Amino acid sequence: MNSPEIKICGISDPAALDAAIGARADHAGLVFFAPSPRNLALGDARALAERATGRIGKVGLFVDADDSLIADAVNATQLDALQLHGEETPERAAQLKARFGLTVWKALPIASPADVERARQYDDIADLILFDAKTPKDAALPGGMGLRFDWSLLSGYRGKARWGLAGGLTPNNVADAIAQTGAALVDTSSGVESAPGVKDVDRIAAFCKAARP
Questions:
Q1: In whole numbers, what is the pLDDT of the chain averaged over residues?
Q2: Any idea where the N-(5'phosphoribosyl) anthranilate isomerase (PRAI) domain is (predicted)?
Q3: Is the pTM here over 0.90, yes or no?
Q4: Do the Cβ atoms of 15 and 23 come closer than 8 Å?
Q5: Which of 13, 66, 127, 132 is catalytic?
Q6: Which residues span the domain enclosing 204?
Q7: Taking the CB of residue 179, how many other CB atoms lie within 10 A of it?
Q8: Does the pLDDT at position 96 exceed 90?
Q9: Distance (Å, whole) CA 45 – CA 186
Q10: Of 9, 187, 200, 208, which residue is the catalytic one?
Q11: What phi and psi values does residue 97 have, to the nearest 5 degrees?
Q12: Residue 208 annotated in active site
């Protein structure tokens, strides 16, 4: 089995970005969602993007964002991909893909086989499906909370788009996650933090080493 791609999401400072690059991660996630402790102001995002360009992929995370916010972020950072982490419909995903001409990732919250089946609605639109743990209904955030789902739910999934795995991945369990699911990409955020929104450079290195021995 080929080694998966690695995304470190919620990068918010140069040290974390440099750690992800040094550990050979493929993608850095930049969060544009105000309630998140990892949310970036445009100026900070621009500085990180300049540091990242040509060294690691830049994925912007948005939650039911309007076009103006996405446009501002794209213009500031020259993103490589849009990660849609809210209730965006296939039609909305297609609209954004057409407008911005960028790769589109669609994150889907998973707790049941029916949730996995929803991915097929995005087969001809999303370039990557990101299966994430479903958060409680009253949760303030749609992800980044350290929750995981039953990976066996993905055992029968055969969609057209590439897919990745998120939700509660840590240096301690990512190797098992890859072995069980065969995910083409693994994505972590809180799993490499010492506190909400605070990335730990040693955990980033350990995660990447475990995901790609």
A1: 93
A2: 6-209
A3: yes
A4: no
A5: 132
A6: 5-211
A7: 11
A8: yes
A9: 23
A10: 9
A11: -60, -40
A12: no
